[in-house]
Amino acid sequence: MKINFASQSDDDRENHVISEFVKFVAEDSDEFDTINIERIPEEDFQTPDFLVRELKSIVEIKKVTEDPSYMQKIGSLRHDVLSKITKDIEEILGNLTDNTLVSINNSRPLKSRGEDYKSLIRDISKDIREKNDYGFSGEYGYRIDRNSESTPQLMVIYSGFEYPTPEKLAEHIKSVIAKAGIQLNRYQEIYKLQEYKKILVFDHFFTHTENLSFTVKAIEIAYNLSPAKELDNIFLQMNEAIVRIR
User: Fold this and answer.
1) CA distances to 14, 18, 39, 40, 172 from 10, in Å
2) According to DSSP H, which parts of 94-195 are helical?
3) What does the pLDDT look like over 39-86, one tens digit per residue?
4) Nearest CA to 140 among 101, 111, 100, 99?
5) Choosing a second label site near 221 at 20 to 30 A (CA), which of 169, 170, 175, 188?
6) Which 3 state secondary structure label does DSSP give 157?
7) Best CA proximity match to 110, nearest among 143, 84, 88, 92
8) Four-residue CA torsion sign, 109, 110, 112, 114
9) Are 231 and 199 in contact (CB under 8 A)?
10) Nearest one of 73, 71, 50, 19 to 205, comparing CA atoms
11) Are 128 and 112 a contacting pair, CB within 8 Å?
12) Distance between CA atoms of 233 and 210, rounded to whole angstroms?
């Protein structure tokens, strides 16, 4: 089977996702020698992305992502950076006398190396040793809470940060599904393509996690919360694979 672009998107990523989607859907089919992909031209209204006539499909591609500044903070928590910070502070302090909680303000993404990181470790260690309740290290602020009656140990958290959950990501995805439904419905009605399926393909693009089940669950929650069930199928492109969600 050959995949041919009759017309392409200016976005190479979209072209890659649609070609992977077509391969996935037509993988076990001997019905077509060639499948043609057409980029739908932009009009006065927001149009979907692609038309695949052989598969009778209108396809809209949406990225699974969040606010860039929020994503930087989420990305900074990868590789267990909080455990690394805790370990490096413990190595400087040695034996602790208090149960100590350090809450680093989430005003900027955390770093795991470099001069800013080294300064943060030194400054927090110094303030713990000097029994200070608050401290600053460059643009980082932090609070230190102690309890002398509990077992001495150190815990470091990212203060005020909302750790990612499928439910949180679903809040964003719900509006994306609604918008895609409107685009696909309108195009189908205007061009009288009632026999065509309305398909939404999510493209995983630097989001909360690289865990597939996390993102799938978020999309399922978002779809179930959507009042209008207008899409025929939803797929997810993630980790170099296509997954059918519904």
Assistant:
1) 8, 13, 9, 12, 25
2) 115-129, 166-190
3) 999 888 889 999 999 999 999 999 887 556 666 776 677 668 899 999
4) 111
5) 188
6) strand
7) 84
8) positive
9) yes
10) 71
11) no
12) 22
Tokens at residue 6, please?
A: 């009759």
Give CA angle at 211 (208, 213), nearest 5°. 110
Q: Looking at beta carbons, which pairs linking 42-49 to residues 24 or more positions away fall under 8 Å? A: 45/186, 46/179, 46/182, 46/183, 46/186, 47/183, 47/187, 48/180, 48/183, 48/184, 48/187, 49/9, 49/14, 49/18
Per-residue pLDDT tens over the stretch 20-44: 999 999 886 778 889 999 999 988 8
Domains, the chain, ordered by start = 2-67+165-244 (3.40.50), 78-159 (no CATH)
Q: Using an 8 Å Cβ cutoff, are 184 and 198 in contact?
A: yes
What is the value of pTM for the model shown?
0.68
Closest-CA residue to 81 (of 125, 117, 115, 128) = 117
